[in-house]
Specification:
The protein is mainly beta. It has 3 helices and 10 strands. The longest helix is centred in the N-terminal third of the chain and has 10 residues.
Length: about 180
């Protein structure tokens, strides 16, 4: 059962955590500000809040980066449910007037396509996800420099239903193992 969760649900989870992506034409300053705030190392818990696996808890770890001379971002890492771990990766770039990307190889592979969206302001993004008949949105909000909340919702009978929630914390700004001078 845990492997079913990893193969079916964690791709959505990993998509949510990292991909605060969207588009306006041309790339506005809030877009660049948002992408740069995602750079770094992020870790934190999440939970499936609806559906067959409701109540399943997981933990993810991601490294965020932005490409040189392009507007977008990449996230690499993994998510864990119990003793099972799955690699996760996502990439998004500006393509023409919108953002396009994929998670875990996109819908042609075992993941999802990112087909559009909007950077609302330097701290919030909403984008559209797609795989076969699955349609949905992901919202990422960065309320301060060291935290990010992500919600993924899917369309069920013309209504968006939240299915996954995550709370990530930045861990790269913390000095670990430092010793205070006497």
């Amino acid at each position: 059962m845990k492997s079913v969760i990893l193969s079916c649900v964690l791709p959505l989870v990993a998509l949510a955590a990292p991909l605060g992506l969207a588009g306006k034409a041309p790339a506005a300053e809030p877009d660049k500000q948002f992408f740069h705030t995602v750079e770094g190392k992020w870790v934190g818990p999440g939970e499936i809040v609806a559906g067959k696996y409701k109540g399943t808890k997981f933990t993810c770890s991601f490294d965020g980066s932005t490409p040189d001379n392009k507007t977008g971002m990449s996230l690499d890492g993994d998510c864990r449910v119990g003793v099972f771990t799955q690699k996760m990766s996502a990439t998004v770039e500006r393509k023409g007037r919108d953002y396009k990307g994929n998670f875990m190889g996109g819908a042609a592979g075992s993941g999802l396509d990112i087909i559009g969206g909007n950077v609302v302001d330097p701290r919030k993004v909403v984008f559209t996800i797609n795989r076969n008949q699955l349609r949905g949105v992901m919202q990422a909000r960065i309320p301060d420099d060291n935290s990010m909340t992500v919600t993924i919702a899917v369309r069920v009978d013309q209504q968006l239903v939240p299915v996954i929630g995550m709370s990530l914390k930045r861990v790269d700004a913390v000095e670990v193992g430092s010793i205070a001078k006497n």
